[in-house]
Amino acid sequence: MADKRASEILKGARGEAARAKSSADLEQVRVKYLGRQGILTQFLRSLSSIPVAERPEVGREANLAKAEIETLLGERLAELKAAERRHALESQRVDLTLPGRRPSPGTLHPLTLVQDEIIEIFLGLGFAVAEGPEVESDFYNFEALNIPRDHPARDMQDTFYLSEDVLLRTHTSPMQIRIMKAMRPPLRYIFPGRVYRRDIADASHSPVFHQVEGLAVDRNISMGDLKGTLELFAREMFGPRTTTRFRPSFFPFTEPSAEVDVRCFLCGGEGCRVCKQSGWLEILGSGMVHPQVLRNVGYDPEEVTGWAFGMGVERIAMLKYGIDDIRLFFENDLRFLTQFA
Ligand code: DAH
Predict the structure, then answer these.
(1) Among 251, 255, 283, 288, which is best to mutate for testing ligand 1, by the most ligand atoms less than 8 A from CB?
(2) Is 287's C-beta closer than 6 angstroms to any atom of ligand 1?
(3) Comparing C-alpha atoms, which of 324, 330, 244, 326 is closest to residue 284?
(4) Looking at residues 184-195, what average pLDDT do you find?
(5) Residues 110-340, CATH architecture
(6) How far apart are CA 248 and CA 84, in angstroms?
(7) Percent of the chain scoring above 90 in pLDDT
(8) Ligand 1 atom at minimal distance to the Cα of residue 289
(9) How far is CA 244 from CA 179, 230, 283, 300, in A?
(10) Residue boundaries of the structural domains of the chain
(11) Which of its termini does the chain have fewer beta carbons within 10 Å around, N or C?
């Protein structure tokens, strides 16, 4: 009498293999039938307990069933794996036509842009650029510039002192002394750089800011050269219709001294909030290099004369772009910074 069990086990395995939805499901089917405790494995193990006469026949069927289950599991596995691979390829598909993600290259800081613009204008006039130390000695920052001992700028309240004689420069003017000592006239230089003052930050003050200093020394240099140079600068910087005004002023290192104003380009001189109703905007200090300063660097004021100027980069940038708070330059808010590229 033929034993039906092998063919039933085979039927069961075939059905379950067909229903398996993934290779993981199928693995469970394999374990269920062919594993150590699997249905077919146990059936094979039980063959020894059936009558000897039936054993060859039942054993043969059982072995055939085992081979067939192995084959069908193999085929089903290949099918499922292929489907899984297709699915993976589909879901991980790379769209080569998508535009790439560009790295953000950043933008130049507005102060860098304005400083570069100032430098460009003076390079065009034949000036050279030099930079010097932010940590200065009292001699270069004050003494050689004819700034007297009792001048308020020399007060601890106004200047960051590192020691009795060493300080953070309060202006770029010490570069006038450094270059005049290092070289001989004719000199035409600008000195951009960072300067420090003991100010509490508010809308118009910052303890660190930037200046560009200018210096021209030669035989027969006159106030007329200064005026012409700065008028040209103002027109390049603020537009060809810019009007300038030279106002008498005082600096210890220049004589005579002048402050330069440009006609308010916001109101055209009518008077507004930005020019504080005056119609004019102050942009820099300047003057003829004081004879004592020339003597301090070993020059003969009877032989050479010179002029100098100093401007605040933040101030120029604020006027040019209508920025009303100096702190914006130092807060590094990208929403502000990226507007100037
Ligand atoms: N050093 C001055 C300041 O920081 C600015 C200045 C004025 C510079 C007149 C000059 C000058 O070279 O001639 O306020």
Answers:
(1) 251
(2) yes
(3) 244
(4) 98
(5) 2-Layer Sandwich (3.30)
(6) 86
(7) 83
(8) 13
(9) 29, 9, 10, 32
(10) 2-91, 110-340
(11) N
User: Distance (Å, rounded) from C-alpha 251 to C-alpha 292?
Assistant: 13
Average pLDDT rounded to a whole number, residues 1-26:
88
CA pair distance 39, 316, nearest whole angstrom: 90
**pLDDT (tens digit, 9 = 90+) per residue, 72-117?**
999 999 999 999 999 999 999 988 999 988 888 889 999 999 999 9
- Match 């605040």 to its residue by tokens: 312
Answer whether 0.85 is exceeded by the pTM.
no
Q: Which of 189, 210, 309 to mutate to test the pocket of ligand 1 (most atoms within 8 A of CB)?
A: 309
CB 308 less than 6 A from any atom of ligand 1: yes
Q: Which residue is closest in CA terms to ligand 1's atom 5?
A: 310
Q: What is the mean pLDDT of the segment spanning 193-217?
A: 97
* Ligand 1 centroid from CA 289, angstroms: 11
Q: Mean pLDDT over residues 30-36, rounded?
A: 95
Name which of 4-8, 81-85, 260-264 the model is least confident about: 4-8
Local confidence band at 273 (pLDDT 50, 70, 90 cut-offs): confident
Nearest to 251 by CA among 284, 283, 276: 284
The one-character DSSP state at 202 is B
The single-letter DSSP state of residue 151 is: -
CA atoms within 13 A on the CB side of 200: 0
